[in-house]
């Protein structure tokens, strides 16, 4: 071996709910579209993205902590972004076996 081979580096992101670091593939990307938090499983929607584990507990924690307001840099009123679409997506997503 010449020592020139490198291991591939997996990008890491932080879950806005539980604040744990995980691989980008292990988290669900969320974008803001017209005041609604929309899941972006393919990662192709335009705009600033926030990452969260695809579990109801992490989504609930992120909403309670107002993490989406900070992640999307929302200013102004005290209303929170609508997360109904995100919550239904996470709730209805098929679970993988551990």
TrEMBL record:
Protein name in the entry: YlxR family protein
UniProt source species: Streptomyces durbertensis
Domain YlxR: 13-74
Region (Disordered): 75-98
Basic and acidic residues bias (residue ranges): 88-98
Highest rank taxon of the organism: Bacteria
SUPFAM superfamilies: YlxR-like
InterPro entries assigned: YlxR (IPR037465), YlxR-like_sf (IPR035931), YlxR_dom (IPR007393)
């Amino acid at each position: 071996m010449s020592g020139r081979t490198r291991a591939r580096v997996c990008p890491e992101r932080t879950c806005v709910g539980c604040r744990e670091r995980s691989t980008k593939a292990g988290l669900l990307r969320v974008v803001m579209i017209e005041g609604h938090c929309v899941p972006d499983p393919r990662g192709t929607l335009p705009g600033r993205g926030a990452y969260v584990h695809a579990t109801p507990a992490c989504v609930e924690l992120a909403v309670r902590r107002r993490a989406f307001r900070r992640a999307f840099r929302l200013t102004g009123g005290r209303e929170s972004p609508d997360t109904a679409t995100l919550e239904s997506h996470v709730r209805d997503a098929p679970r993988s076996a551990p």
